[in-house]
Design a protein that fits this description.
With 281 residues, the protein is mostly beta strands. The protein contains one helix and 20 strands. Strands 4, 5, 6, 7, 10, 11 and 12 form a seven-stranded antiparallel beta sheet that branches. The relative contact order is 0.16.
Length: 281
């Protein structure tokens, strides 16, 4: 699932507003070198205008101590000056239906003058009592260390984003991604839907019910974790209602026009979008 940049920007604004004066000053990380489970995620460069351009994100977990190191490399030796920031959103329960709009339960906010670790309190990202954190920076590189004892898990999904002004860079491009990397990650092969009626009719309501997704390899049919719909009629967006916005009242003058329905579904870290074109009768 590609995370919408506008959604990330909105979440950053809300999170920063709740910070007050709780930034932890940048310090030295020489004494703490967590090793063990590692993973590196690459992101395309040149896709940011003014935001710090993320090139790689590397995670290193020392399971016995719980130390989690997150290292973000920035192209063009960006130093987060001029109000730049890098943010890590952690979906620790891997449930997109809990937490903020991205499903995040924790957020790490990093600025030129410090960092903050926030937790979702049911309404917003907020400060909470946690173990000491470490922030170390050099030109073009940022490293933070947090304790997974504060996250309640050592396995999670995450999204990294940078922002400066109104420009946002989301990394990696396939975010959110899983840590540790799931060797046998599931993949959605196809989508099963039940349209009602079978063909959309002008002046009538057209509803698409999601019957399930078929997984690649096993051909198992399961209910998706989340889904949402969108539709256009002759190129114009329609406003959907019901669960996932998958029901539309078609105008009486829609006869003969092209209706395109798109459904985005996610299951256990994989997200796909399927589209179907109908001719309104």
């Amino acid at each position: 699932m590609n995370v919408p940049k506008r959604a990330v920007a909105g979440l950053v604004v809300v999170a920063v507003a709740s910070l007050a004066l709780v930034l932890t000053p940048a310090g030295s990380a020489r004494e703490l070198r967590p090793t063990g489970t590692t993973a590196t995620y690459n992101d395309a460069t040149g896709d940011a205008k003014s935001a710090p351009d993320i090139s790689t994100v590397a995670l290193d977990l020392d399971a016995p101590s719980g130390a989690l190191k997150i290292e973000v490399t920035l192209a063009n030796n960006d130093d987060l000056s001029n109000r730049g920031g890098v943010f890590v959103f952690l979906n620790t329960d891997r449930n997109s239906g809990t937490g903020d709009r991205l499903g995040s339960d924790y957020a790490i906010l990093i600025f030129a003058d410090g960092m903050a670790l926030l937790k979702w309190n049911g309404k917003e990202m907020d400060v909470f009592s946690h173990q000491p954190t470490i922030l170390a920076r050099q030109t073009g590189k940022i490293m933070v260390v947090v304790c997974t004892c504060d996250l309640g898990t050592q396995a999670f999904d995450f999204t990294v984003a940078s922002i400066r002004g109104e420009d946002v860079d989301v990394a990696p491009d396939t975010a959110p991604v899983s840590f540790p990397v799931q060797e046998n990650a599931v993949s959605i092969e196809s989508l099963l839907v039940a349209p009602k009626p079978l063909r959309p009719t002008a002046g009538k309501r057209f509803t698409v019910s999601i019957a399930g997704v078929r997984l690649g390899g096993s051909n198992e049919v399961v209910a998706p974790d989340t889904y949402s719909c969108s539709a256009t009629l002759a190129g114009r967006a329609l406003k959907g209602k019901g669960v996932g916005g998958c029901s539309w009242l078609l105008p009486k003058k829609a006869r003969g026009k092209k209706l395109i329905v798109s459904v985005n579904v996610s299951y256990h870290g994989d997200s796909e979008t399927f589209s179907q074109t109908y001719k309104v009768r």
